[in-house]
Amino acid sequence: MKLVLSIVAVLLVIMGAIWSLQGLSLIGGSFMVGQMRWLYIGLLTIAVGIGLLFFARKY
Question: Which residues cross the membrane (predicted)?
Answer without folding.
Answer: 39-56
